[in-house]
Every structure is written in C-alpha cells, then in structure tokens.
Amino acid sequence: MDVDLCAGGESTRKKAELPGAADGTLDVVPVEMYDSARAKIAANLRWLFAKAYGIDHIPEDLRDPFYTDQYDQEHIKPPVIRLLLSCELYCRVCALILKTEQAASLQSHMSVIQALSRKGIYVMESDDTPVTDGDLACIPIKMSAHISMIDALMMAYTVEMISIEKVVASVKRFSTFSASKELPFDLEDAMVFWINK
C-alpha cells in the first residue's frame, strides 16, 4: 500500500483506564481495526520530531501529526507535510546523528541521502528501489519514500549508538556466555543477544 496523504481508514477507538498515563486513559484500538500503516507513519514522525526538537520541545501542532476531515477521513497535517517536503527536519536529524564536519552541507534531501550512503546506509523503498530527491520532494507527498528516509535515519542512529562490542561488554558485566558459540555477528543479532541475556 502506498500511503499518500490519507493515513488510514476509520478510527474507532475506545478509552481504557491506565494508571500512569498522562490523562489516566489510553486509546485502545480493536485488533480488527488496527491500521499498521497509520501506526508506522505516526511512530516514524514522532521519532523524527523527538530527534529534531528534543522530546520535551516538540511544537504543539506537531505532537499529533494527523487531523480528521469533515468526511471522517484521517490525513497528515499540512504543516507536517511542508516540513517533510522542505527537508529541514531530515538535515537537522542527520547532522545530530552523524556529527560530521559536513553538517553545514546538509541542505537538501539528496545531501542527506548521500551522507547516509557514505555511512553504508541506503535509503531504499520496500521493493529495493533507491529513494530519490524527486521522490521526497514530489507533491502530492509520496509517504512511502519519507518512511524509508526516516527508517534510514533510525538505522544511522542505531549504528552510531550501538555496536557489537558495546553490547558484548555490557552483557559481560551481568552475565556469562560462551564466546565461541554465542557472540553476535551483526547489530540485529547483538540486540537479540542482549535481550536474551
């Protein structure tokens, strides 16, 4: 499914009491009505905003990236669309993650794609076609390309924050393991190793 401006179908939600929630309630969506595409968009955008602005400083109008129109259809808010098309957030987040001297040169979607590729992270659609500058700047917005860009930024963040060596050193502090049989071979395996130990 290529998600354009529409983020999902019906949004029938129920409120459930949850201790510790900000207002004491939590939206619970029945499984048969769960919209995974909407959830992916919401999670990716919230991560992007948290990295760009800081978790406690996300502008009020961006905290919920969706609005519901008069036909009860949910869409991504126009200010969010403008931010994604402008590449401002991508440049800011990429500069924070990669901490490179070339941070000032990050001024376009293409410069972010190139900075990520220099780190071995490629912005690819789900069908393995590369995301282009045109995909990220086209109107109406091609949300699948933006999700791929945010996913690549998330991967860059993971690579910068986590290494196999750091995970093994952490596990050594509180657990024993057989180095000849259990050492992780990539980041995903390292995370599973950490969780299991």
From TrEMBL:
Pfam families to which the protein is assigned, alphabetical: CH_CAMSAP2_N
Signal peptide (residue range): none
Domain CASAMP N-terminal: 27-160
UniProt xrefs under InterPro entries: CAMSAP (IPR032940), CAMSAP_N (IPR058042)
Domain of life: Eukaryota
The protein, known as: Calmodulin-regulated spectrin-associated protein 1-B
Lineage: Eukaryota, Metazoa, Chordata, Craniata, Vertebrata
Gene symbol of the encoding locus: CAMSAP1B_1
